[in-house]
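Work Package 4 report. The design task specified in the project plan requires that, given a folded chain encoded as structure tokens, an amino acid be chosen for each position. We show below one input record used in the internal validation round.
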């Protein structure tokens, strides 16, 4: 069996290193290129036999059939532009894209298949599905808040996963848009109808915890996911890479990869 050639962008970050390590165990995929930003101290490091970290995105894409991207928003978008020109399908785990950047990604996805996910964990994507269904079944009589905890070095808040959970709540309620409450301080007044609270905690080396609370009168329902390592995120990204290679151009998410929705 010929193994598909994979590029990892952000190869020396936490997620990139996890993906590279688990990629070595994947019988259908092989590391072909590793990319890092120009100011990173690691270019030249060998990650696999004959594969050294480069800062040249064009050369990295020329060596690959699929790209897995865990970089900052600007770097990820720059690579996606080049990938669209090279017709290389992409799996993107970057969070923190601005609305106009997301619009550009949608446009690029008309040229290549892109899986864009806030979180590649299979369990977390099942959580998205369960949260959407719970919001639908409980209805507007239950308030909803999302609480997330991540390591001290995480630069964006709230996490992309927390925001996606808030979107799932709104979708389950049938709301086109729900007001997000990202902070509470002082005399806030009563909770606005339909509001979804999203609160972020930072500290230690925690790879990620997310809890969704549905708060009713005299009871509450909690749905939670707690990560102990990053390996399950990496395994999900590899699963998405195997899936995306056979897809037509379009913008996909991890729930589609798992068959949880069309």
């Amino acid at each position: 069996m010929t193994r598909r050639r994979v590029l990892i962008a952000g190869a020396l970050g936490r997620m990139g290193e996890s993906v590279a390590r688990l990629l070595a165990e994947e019988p259908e995929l092989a590391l072909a290129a590793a990319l890092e930003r120009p100011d990173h101290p690691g270019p030249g490091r060998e990650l696999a036999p004959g594969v050294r970290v480069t800062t040249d995105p064009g050369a990295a894409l020329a060596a690959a059939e699929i790209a897995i991207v865990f970089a900052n928003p600007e770097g990820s978008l720059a690579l996606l532009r080049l990938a669209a020109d090279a017709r290389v399908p992409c799996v993107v785990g970057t969070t923190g894209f601005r609305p106009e950047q997301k619009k550009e990604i949608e446009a690029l996805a008309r040229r290549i298949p892109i899986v864009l996910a806030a979180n590649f964990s299979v369990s977390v994507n099942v959580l998205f599905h369960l949260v959407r269904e719970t919001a639908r079944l409980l209805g507007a009589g239950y308030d909803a808040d999302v609480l997330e905890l991540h390591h001290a070095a995480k630069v964006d808040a709230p996490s992309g996963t927390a925001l996606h959970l808030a979107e799932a709540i709104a979708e389950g309620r049938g709301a086109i848009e729900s007001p997000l409450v990202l902070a509470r301080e002082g005399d806030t007044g009563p909770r606005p109808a339909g509001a979804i609270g999203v609160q972020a905690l930072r500290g230690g080396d925690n790879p990620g915890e997310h809890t969704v609370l549905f708060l009713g009168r005299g009871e509450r329902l909690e749905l939670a996911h707690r990560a102990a390592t990053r390996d399950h995120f990496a395994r999900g990204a590899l699963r998405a890479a195997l899936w995306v290679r056979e897809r037509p151009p379009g913008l996909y998410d991890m729930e589609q990869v798992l068959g949880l929705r069309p």
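Helices lie at 14-23, 57-62, 73-86, 99-108, 122-138, 160-173, 231-244, 254-257. Validation will be extended to a larger panel in the next phase.
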